[in-house]
Design goal:
- Two copies of one chain form a homodimer.
- With about 425 residues, chain A is of the alpha+beta class.
- In chain A, a hairpin with an 8-residue loop joins strand 10 and strand 11.
- Chain A starts with about 25 loop residues before the first strand and ends with a strand.
- Chain A is about 15% helix and about 30% strand.
């Protein structure tokens, strides 16, 4: 570690995603205790409900009761100054030399492998963007042919659609293969049955921490004040259902059966060391989409598949920086018509594909519509997911001795019921 | 009135939507009282919180506290047997000869013109169907040309998409004209400004009263057990924003700035007298979309426009029966992939257009994309909505002396901010 890295009195494994620079929030349940808020640190969860009860998290605007809630929403609604103060205070409590937790250590630090993680936020509305040029181009080529791959609007606005909030589940939740209508291009009529083209989509989502009223616009300058933090997001997709249903109003049953998120919400502040300039954007965007500063992040991401009782194979290595539209542009666009946001809303990036063929963030792209086999370590091949495959997504970055990570989002695809 | 019609000891105006056969639920606030549940009856609101407190709504499965909630969700979650028992009991209390309300009459019956109506349900997720063949055909012709008007999937499945739940507002809420990107077909690049093609969409929405788990399917036979009741729904649309943004993922900013609903949720039971057979469906639908019985409803609907300080003109006369897909098919389709539903979810029909040109449920269709003028009584013309226009939708039916109605959903379009 170099001079920038803080040290904790708690032993944190060298490869841990959850260093003192990260401090992500989640909702956990241990033994017979009720759900409560915690922060991941090394191999432990720091129990914020207990800390608040013991008076260790006092401060202006604080409401100690929020850490005993089922969701983080009421904590987020306290506002950015409180998020900053709590984050600063937790860092202080964990920093080498601080002894304030000594008396509570056994109780306040719960082994992470002993707890159950729950959905961290109540998602009011979920929006899915489509902000990777490579993904949009790849899918466009396959669904509509190379001449219509990227729609004329794509480089003028961050295309997005509303998804289903009720079926967003936390990592570890099993996913059931959906049934639905599909139609092969040469079939005379659609047929019904389990999807044969099950896929993942590698995305990163951010969580809204500050609401707006109807008619209110968020500028690109203000956007980051509305963003609480980030999770990994697997937008499970049934490609055959999607292809038949999606015109003219967009994806519906091909997507809304499930999406999975990682349980730890990584604060925007934790990503600061990884800010980088965004991609050049041509043609020039309209004034409301222009921005100052750096709002892209250099965070490597990967996707692995583990067959039932099998070995894990990483099938995709991408990066959060592979997005054409940044988070500030996404929020400015979402609210430019006066659409109101609520604390807990989730904004997913869309599949994050890069230019290299092994950086494509979905099997649809990796297998190029099922044409090419993706080889797994056990010798088997995938064009789409098979029953009992687990999909694992991870993300994390290191720079100047500072390491942070998202942990993982994991889900197993069960056979159709 | 004929022999089927019940009589109340309360005087109910002959043209009232809110007869003893209707008994719709809403959330109201009067003077300095907190919001609470009520039932519309004639010119009054029956205060259910007060009735429950006085022990007049007891019964198996009942929780009197639900009527003091801010939303109807917890009442709905008690389940259909409770809805039926409460409805039966309220009818009993209001029927000629019953004297149980005598002691509370002044307090329990609040004049409707003295109360403020609030959003009746907390909408978790909002789905918009696209179930009128005439509407889909009309819009398809204008957006994609006559050869692609009705997509190949349209007669095989009830097309739908997810909309924005946070911007659904109750009747009477002002709507601000949205700004956004638009692009004329011959323009080299998009431009930014207030929408110039503001429109309404005449819809009816139903409210989910019984939730499902992920992986659970609702058959067409079971569907009505999940439906609590109905409201009128104005899906405000910015056609120029929609046309530029909607491909390939569907409508977003062209719709999500606002939708308006009528404040009174009309129970499914109240619509029983108006059931009629559905339209013939060719080609034959897949087995999961087949249904028994009658699930369409003969309920005339109308849309009026009132210019600022002007006279009202009815511009559209349609009917709820003008839908190709019925409510049971919509729910069976929505859940056939295992998508879970939650109490309070709202399912809108899509614009309800008939075959007659004056039955088209949007200005886009009435003016045929702005080509034809819609004449108002004050001599002015509309192709799309003008600033300070109010849009009023109404619906109601009468049969065998039994009359029920939805009341109205009203909204005024304010200039862009």
């Amino acid at each position: 570690m170099d001079g920038n890295a803080l040290k904790s009195w708690l032993e944190i494994p060298g490869n841990s995603d959850f260093t003192i620079h990260n401090l992500p929030y989640g909702i956990f349940r241990s033994r017979d205790r009720t759900p409560r808020a915690g922060v991941a640190i090394g191999d432990y969860v720091l129990d914020l409900a207990l800390l608040a009860k013991e008076g260790l998290l006092k401060g202006p605007g604080m409401d100690a009761a929020v850490f005993s809630d089922r969701y983080l929403n009421n904590f987020m609604a306290l506002g950015k100054p409180v998020w900053q103060a709590v984050r600063h205070r937790i860092g202080e409590l964990l920093t080498e030399g601080n002894t304030e937790l000594k008396a509570y250590k056994e109780e306040a630090l719960v082994p992470r492998d002993s707890v159950e993680m729950l959905m961290p936020v109540h998602v009011g509305n979920y929006t899915d963007f489509y902000s990777s040029e490579e993904h949009a181009t790849n899918v466009g080529k396959m669904f509509r042919g190379p001449e219509n791959a990227l729609m004329p609007n794509w480089k003028h606005l961050p295309v997005a659609y509303h998804g289903r909030a009720s079926s967003i589940v936390v990592s570890g939740t099993d996913i059931i293969r959906p049934k639905g209508q599909t139609k092969a291009p040469d079939a005379p009529a659609p047929s019904f049955g389990p999807s044969k083209r099950m896929d993942f989509e590698l995305e990163v989502a951010f969580v809204i921490g500050k609401s707006t009223q109807m008619g209110e616009r968020i500028s690109t300058d203000e956007a980051e004040d509305h963003i609480f933090g980030f999770v990994l997001f697997n937008d499970w997709s049934a490609r055959d259902i999607q292809a038949w249903e999606y015109q003219p109003l967009g994806p519906f049953l091909g997507k809304n059966f499930a999406s999975s998120i990682s349980p730890w919400v990584v604060p925007l502040e934790a990503l600061e060391p990884f800010r980088i300039p965004g991609r050049a954007q041509y043609p020039e965007v309209l004034p409301y989409l222009k921005y100052k500063g750096h709002h892209s992040f250099d965070i490597p991401l990967e996707v692995a598949i583990t067959p039932d009782n099998g070995e894990e194979t990483v099938v995709c290595r991408s990066n959060f920086k592979n997005l054409y539209w940044n988070i500030c542009q996404q929020l400015a666009h979402h609210t430019v018509n006066g659409c109101n946001l609520e604390v807990g809303d989730m904004m997913a990036s869309g599949t994050i594909s890069g230019q290299a063929p092994d950086s494509f963030g979905s099997l649809l792209e990796l297998s190029w519509g099922g044409k090419n086999a993706v080889k797994l370590k056990d010798g088997s091949e995938r064009r789409f997911l098979e029953d009992n495959d687990s999909v694992i997504m991870r993300g994390g970055a290191e720079k100047g001795g500072i390491r942070i990570g998202f942990g993982e989002v994991r889900g197993k695809l069960l056979p159709a019921n």
